[in-house]
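Let's do one together. I've listed all components of the complex below, 313 residues spread over two lines.
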Amino acid sequence: MNFESFSAFLAMGGHGPYVWSCYALTLLVLLFNGLAPGWRQRRFLREQGARQRRQEQS
Amino acid sequence: MKVPAPLVRLWHRLGSPRWFFETTAPWLPWLLGLGVVLLGAGTFWGLALAPADYLQGNSFRIIYVHVPAAILAQSCYMLMGTCGVVLLVWRMKLADMVLEAAAPIGASFTALALVTGAVWGKPTWGTWWAWDARVTSMLILLFLYLGIVGLRQALARPEAAGRACAILAIVGLVNIPIIKYSVDWWLTLHQPSTFKLTEKPAMPPSMWIPLLLSVLGFYALFIWSVLQSTRVVVLERERRTAWVQNFVAEQGSKA
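Okay, and this is what the predicted structure of the assembly comes out as:
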């Protein structure tokens, strides 16, 4: 372990805000890229499902 | 030259979006797991265990997200350039679908590399932004990505949009070696590459092994995202086929 305490780990020798903002942003980007296709697929299934049901009725 | 039979088979199967959709489904959880484990190990090691840099102190720990994002930004573009060639030469539909799916993801990694670079630049260079060769060529890469995303939305006919995006993706490939060699060709603020193919890294192993783990983790998560996104594009574009309509009906009855 490179740091003596958890608070020293958070402070990063005064560079804490720089380091942690970069990691937080990375997490957001990775999460968005992973979740966005799921949202788009759910919307497609809903709309296409409705289209198919309409076609069956007509 | 004779191409081995299994490769020829794979090539023909790649022509079928349905084959792609059905084959990649079981890969997704493994890619996610692999990515989380590798990136988790790399960033924990990089943040908590690796020694501080003798010049940059702890701000250097930004490298464990900045470098993977920048590497993926370029790898994604090379993937798209390759897809562009495959689309124009062989008219493979799947190549166009991957090109559509990968563009916003590549743009997000390029933006991430630029922003984390700016945040890292503040304590190390003393400025958020410099018109440095590396930074400028990465900004051009971001504009290329946004151009490809915008072009597809602007053109109504999907076939014309696909061809235009493919051409732009191929032309933009010129920028990739410029990014790579910008730190050698011009006098720049940006530090030279950590990893080189022909030399040992200038860092001690306790610093570069976690970086390698993070890069591999980013690759796994990138492939995971692109596959997922391409699968949705497959469904949307093939929505008139019987197999997609059966899939939609099946999913609807489950929900």
